[in-house]
Structures
1.
Amino acid sequence: MKKPRLILACLLVCGAVSAWAEDGYRLWLRYDRIDGQSNRNEYRRPTQALILATPTGEESAIIKSARSEVARGLDKMLGRKQTKVHVVTHAPDPALGEDGYALENVTVDGEAAVRVRANSDAGVLYGVFEVLRRVQMRESLEELDVVSVPKIDRRLLNHWDDLNGFVERGYAGFSLWRWYELPEILDPRYTDYARAVASLGLNGTVVTSVNANALILTPDYLKKVAALADVFRAWGIRTYLTARYSAPIEIGGLETADPFDPAVQAWWDAKIDEIYEHIPDFGGFVVKANSEGQPGPHDYGRDHAVGANLLAEPLAKNGRDGIVMWRAFVYDFEDDTDRVKQAYNQFVPLDGKFADNVLVQIKNGPLDFMPREAFSPLFGATPQTKQMVELQITQEYLGASLELAYLGTMWEEVLQQDTFVQGEGSTIGTITDGTLHGHELSAIAGVANTGTDRNWTGHVMAQANWYAFGRLAWDHELGAREIAIEWAQLTFDANAKATDKIVNLLMSSRETVVNYSMPLGLHHIMERGHHYGPGPWVEGGRPDWTSPYYHQADTTGIGADRVASGSNAIEQYAPELQALWGNLETVPDELLLWFHHLPWDYEMRSGRTLWNELAFRYQQGVDEVRAMRETWTSLRGDIDAERWDHVRQRLAVQEAAAIEWRDACLLYFQQFSKRPLPDGVELPAHDLQHYIDVNRRYFPGHPGDN
Ligand code: GCW
């Protein structure tokens, strides 16, 4: 009687163990044993030793990290006891910049070796991660001729994490930073976080939210930040904070935070000295000022440049290289100018007034991370001011972590978008990397999608967005598809056919979300507060937080009028784009209703009326999610059951969400269009009121009460 029980127990335990193993925790750093033959192709196991060549040849903390990753990765994959790692000195090579690296084949004592050469220890670490990536992808380490140099200096994650553990627009649990345990207790997860960040070549993290709490700047909290910074430093990651503009009042006991007040200046000066005592390589601040209720220099009649320079000066004192990333996400509901014009209006007159170590941090769109918007016209409009792009990795408007939306395609579109400010080729990528206007210092930010969920990002497929952001921060010219291929190979290690299917699924997913939520250039028609699901009917309160402000639907038609007949926001763009987007003959369908208010019977390129096209796009979005589900079903057995089922469940949710968007929006807009749904578009299951009454209480990531 005993034996079967034992076997049963073993089966249960073993089953549980393997289920736990595929919980997504390992991200793209899986390092599974390679058995000589991979799913994809024959693989010749590299036998080489590793030579780490730096200008100093020292065994620094970062080099130790590189060694530990080799042991954890290479040895495990190759089933080796210990790869030989030699650290040697090498003359600096200007071609590699600060963080770049070269991978070369060399012979040491008659033995084949791979040399990772760089000008900094961080560069060596990035090179080691590339070696590991290549081995994971079964790429040969022979005939190596790799030189890789990041185009952007400061490659940052921005965490919107509050001190109480809540993550604003976070859909993967709570904050990774356990402030109440710090500085004494160090969660091992901090190291795993740092490994993941460094593996992508990211080199900075802003650990607190832009909706800032001044407490983080108090001595007790600075000790906690310093403990985190110590962990991150060993992985080449610098720590940054957000600065609450009114901190001199809230924690400094002053009566004002006016940047012209000498006591305020002295306070920041001393505070920044204190920060550097705790964190000698402190990176600087991100500041959200005079936006959505945050305090700022306007409270004292001073402009953004004066505001930013107040912090910039002490950050550059004594040879420090701290920076200020001053956000351009500013708009004021008391100003009745079209919201999408306001940042440009506030910042363009300030060009040339910002200190050298200030960058203006601009969201890709002038509104707010919509599934698609025209790019922010502020890009390139202040040639003397350093500008950087802020992308949102967390899916605030693209289905949170319930829905699959690969954002690599969206960011490729953004980074390669031509602004024409200096003629053709003036892309947002070249503005962000500083080359267009000849700026030395450059930075890029992505709002993180990480949290305490075991798989880090809530939806396993959302790991691809963290990955894609990191890769694009390193090289904004990489293609979304090549990044998706890498990620899918590293993450699932499936056969070639299955990998192809996963990549295709990723590649079309963002457009699918656009189709079922905000097609044809519609924007900001989501539910209020938590921003999940449809809400074209949202009205009341400040107008720029309502939906009709943006869709402008009425019996004559639909769309935001941003040409001369309306807000004329289009005038903020280069003449080439004004001509392209202002003209109905040439404006792409994707931006049609972003710029134009058009009659319901307007004839589209497809030959359909605008109303029919709108209905058709919503239906198409639903059909595409159904196709995604079929594709996923067909992957059963090609990837592990745990993650297969995880995604399968979420795709079912996504189909229901797509149907809800379609039905809610079409019923709502039909009140104005007064036209029937065209053939081929499914009839809604409920009346409009049903959708209006949907109330998602306690949706994660929303700071207000639900
Ligand atoms: O998109 C909006 C979000 C806010 C966010 C703000 C910002 C951190 O709804 O939650 O606040 O943007 O970027 O400052």
Note: Residues 160-492 form a domain with the TIM Barrel fold (CATH 3.20.20.80).
2.
Amino acid sequence: MKLFGTNGIRGKIGEKFTPDFLVNVGMAIGSYVLQGSNVIVGQDTRISGDMVKDAVISGIMSTGVNVIDVGIAPTPAIQFYTKAHGDLGIAITASHNPPEFNGVKVIASDGTELPREEEKKIEEIFLSKKFRIVGWENVGRYHERSDANQGYTNAILKRVNTDLIRKRKFTVVVDCSNGASSLTTPYLLAKLGVRVISLNCQPDGRFPGHNSEPKPENLKDLIEFMRSGNYDLGVAHDGDADRAVFVDETGRFLYGDKTLALVAREVVKEKKGIVVTPVSSSMAVEDVVKKNGGKVVYTKVGAPIVARKMIEVGAVFGGEENGGMIFPEMQYCRDGAMAVAKILEIMARGDMTLSKMVDDLPEYYQMKISVQCPENKKRDVLEKLKEKLKGENINTLDGVKIVHEDYWILIRPSGTEPIYRIYAEAKDEKKLNDAAHKYREILEDIISEFLK
Ligand code: MG
């Protein structure tokens, strides 16, 4: 059994997530750190948050480890607090999943998500049940703190040019998806001199406004608002606010790769240096970074991998195409509110509207396709694929990426579902369709060979 998935431990309440299970998770996490350590615990707005948190905390304290409970806070605020005050952190969140889910995400003492090797150690303790149960006199202590959100927003204000932003007197429509950012982003914006119009900014774990994944189909109200009025920027966060997506002043939803390229361009213009992003990111990022005298370093898909690579190479910026952006001057994790402040700074510095800035970015066509493949065949299929594509210009960092002058194709097994994903990007639509079709056939042929 695997305890951790690609985003910590996730499960449905009353199914996988029972009190028994969660107390054991707490005992495993507590046994993983030294006795007497301080673990920071925070949560998003889900209805089950208190139930999950209390069970996990009980398990942790039984191993002689103290808990500092910061209450409802965005995941990056919990990470920031952990870096300052904790030996380990826990975010009780299922990010953008439906309300019946919850999750336990473990954070290292430096504020980054725990790497896979360390998660495995917790998993081993959980499975072997080798818990460190201490006597009554050594049971951990419990403290509540209410300063995590304010400390977090103040830290962001120190890292952007607040005077410049305030002068512009922007009007921003913000949709917090009824999540944890309801307690931070509207207040951060107010401190930046912004006129704030808030949608779904009352914390509510039933997510009555819309599903908490910030996709265009969930953000119809925000988009409609931006179309109908005279506002400078629309912002939406996912449930735990490690991500931010944007809508421009014309009401156009900006896909994550556009924002990523825009921020990468502006950061590199100023600082040069290295930008880190996964192999699945748009060529637009590399185009603008190179053009402005910077360099792109690619990684496997996954925010913690991007963050750790950034530390290793001393990157100036990093991020993913889903609205996850990492600013090293703040912390090495995805940070939704920092992304909002940074976008406003970029808008304040420039002399054009957001839509004009985005129109200046290189334009590419993209496609994503899923192909069914049984879990136990994925490895063989990948080997065969690599062999078959040997003669081409390929990169095997994560799956197989075939790189051509004006298009690329990435074929990689999903980490969570029995499918292969094909990502394709090209400068013209016909080339995109032709290439995606060609490599899809190659993949399907190989999979059907293994199914015979
Ligand atoms: Mg999230």
Note: The pocket of magnesium ion is lined by residues 95-96, 238, 240, 242-243 (CB under 6 Å).
